Amino acid sequence: MKGILTTACCISLCSYMKKRVFLFLCLLLFFSGCSYVSSREVAGVTGLPSDRTLTIWALSDIQPKNVSQRSHFVKAISDVNANVRNVDFAIVAGDLVQKTTRESYGWYLDTRAGSYIKEWYEIAGNHDLKPDGGTLFRELINGDGHYSFTKGNVLFILMSDEQKGSPTEIGTDTFNWWKSLVEGNQDKIIVVVTHAPLEGSGIPFSNMRRRRITGSKRFREVLKRYKVDVWISGHNHVPHWFAGDVGAVDGLGGTVFVNVSAIRKEALGLKPSESRFITFVCGSDRVLIRSRNHTRGKYTAWLDRGYKLSKPFRCGVAGGE
């Protein structure tokens, strides 16, 4: 009888805990302002031919602190090579290395070369400016601190950190360049990439001075009047299950802010190696955003998100690539 009672208590406790966990996940979904995507919808998108989709690997904060942590990026590359096909290009939202040296960037480039993805677009994060102010980044990775490119009717605008220090500093000239691009390309889907998130984006810790873009208000004022569809950032290393890690902000024109987290594992492995995969579908005004756990080598299905874009993706438009 005692064994039966113990078993019954265990079952009751497990049932109770499952309900509590389910409630917790529901609260996370509610407060993150997300748009749930069913497994059928995901299969419908990922099952399309590669010429009908545009898929981006969005990653950030690789920055191994020691040689052993370099395995995190190596494993992420291996995971994508083996399990994630038809990726068109990769975007790295800063902090490629922990400290800039020719050797550390040489390691990054050699590891990157092992990927089947041949197009890579990087920006400099705060660690890419240490200690040389970004000299090696500009020499070895990308000579342009800010630049843009188009794929179909999607305009990508990328802006590096411009000064050493934890906050993302973007100068007036770069801001005006960005503002002009946004205002002049409202006929396109616009995606912005910065290292730190925008204050007011809802991304966790973006209300802290060291964890956001300095002078965020000027960007927010533009977003209230002109459409930016997606804003990608890293810097805060927050796990994807945090509330607010991805979501649309109505007060900022419905821009979808996406924290891509970090490739580097942290907190004794409690924060896994993570990144995002973002897919546009030809003729559709929906974008699919998926969370990839490279530590486990799988997507976290309950974190799949779908959002409405300002216009359908046109994959074969003139002037695109």
Describe this structure in words.
- This protein is of the alpha/beta class and 321 residues long.
- The chain has a single domain, classed as 4-Layer Sandwich (Purple Acid Phosphatase, chain A, domain 2), CATH 3.60.21.
- It contains seven helices and 13 strands.
- The protein has helices at residues 2-31, 39-46, 70-83, 102-112, 135-140, 172-184, 216-223, and strands at 53-59, 89-92, 120-122, 146-151, 154-159, 189-193, 230-233, 246-249, 255-259, 274-281, 286-293, 298-299, 305-308.
- The strands form two sheets. Strands 1, 2, 3, 10, 11, 12 and 13 form a seven-stranded mixed β-sheet that branches.
- Helix 7 (216-223) links the parallel strand 6 (189-193) and strand 7.
- The termini are far apart.
Under CATH, the topology is which?
Purple Acid Phosphatase, chain A, domain 2
Rg from alpha-carbon coordinates: 20 Å
Give the overall form.
globular
Number of strands: 13
**Topology as H/E string?**
HHEHEHEHEEHEHEEEEEEE
The level 1 CATH classification is Alpha Beta
Helix percentage: 25-40%
**Proportion in β-strands:** 15-25%
Question: Average pLDDT, to the nearest integer?
Answer: 89
Count of domain modules? 1
Strand-pairing-aware structural class: alpha/beta
Distance from first to last alpha carbon: 72 Å
Q: What characterizes the major β-sheet?
A: 7 strands, mixed
Stretches where pLDDT falls below 50 for ≥5 residues? 1-34
Q: Tell me the CATH superfamily.
A: Metallo-dependent phosphatases
Q: Count up the helices.
A: 7
* CATH architectural arrangement: 4-Layer Sandwich
